[in-house]
Specification:
This protein has 185 residues and is mainly alpha-helical. The chain has one domain. It is 72% helix and 0% strand. It is built from eight helices and no strands. It is globular. The two termini are 17 Å apart.
């Protein structure tokens, strides 16, 4: 990948550490998964608008996207997240109920129970950061496919990408997990 994910992974790891101190072993798994969905719903809600942004450079595009991310998170997602989770609304390729067995297993408080949820959180942070970076490339005038190539060094054939779910799956397939593993060694 042509992006340094060190800051993303450090921030995500720091969040996990803070949450371990803040929440009980019963609350922690739920809160971690809830945060996964907070990010996913934010990206889903901003996706169409973000694809229509225009910038002079990747850096400028990324700043615009992160500003939009903050606006959408604060105005729309924060007020609806619990409702969407309770209604089991699908975002990307996931529903909150997909995680219910893992949450229940992790509530035992054992490291073996919480570790898979923490890993999943880190993986989704990487995937979502790659999605945001991809959007930034598209704002700078690159085509969707060229943006994928610029980010991953891989040339793929695909039709028009018109949903968060599509680009999320592409980034997952193109090596998000292998990128995470590089940073975890």
């Amino acid at each position: 990948m042509n992006i340094d994910l060190t800051k993303t992974i450090q921030e995500a790891s720091s969040n996990l550490s803070i949450w371990r101190d803040r929440y009980s072993s019963h609350e922690l798994p739920y809160k971690i998964v809830l945060n996964i969905f907070y990010r996913k719903f934010t990206i889903e809600c901003m996706f169409d608008k973000a694809l229509n942004l225009s910038s002079d450079s990747w850096d400028d595009g990324y700043q615009q996207i992160m500003k939009l991310y903050g606006q959408v998170a604060g105005s729309e997602v924060v007020h609806n997240l619990e409702k969407w989770v309770a209604q089991d609304v699908r975002v990307g390729a996931q529903r909150f109920s997909d995680f219910a067995p893992y949450i229940e297993n992790a509530r035992s408080g054992s490291l073996e129970g919480i570790a898979p949820i923490q890993y999943t959180y880190l993986l989704h942070r990487v995937i979502d950061e790659l999605v945001l970076a991809w959007i930034a490339y598209t704002t700078s005038g690159l085509s969707q496919i060229d943006s994928i190539s610029q980010l991953t060094n891989i040339i793929i054939e695909t039709g028009h990408i018109d949903s968060y779910e599509q680009i999320e799956a592409i980034m997952d397939q193109l090596g998000a997990e292998s990128e995470l593993r590089k940073y975890m060694q």
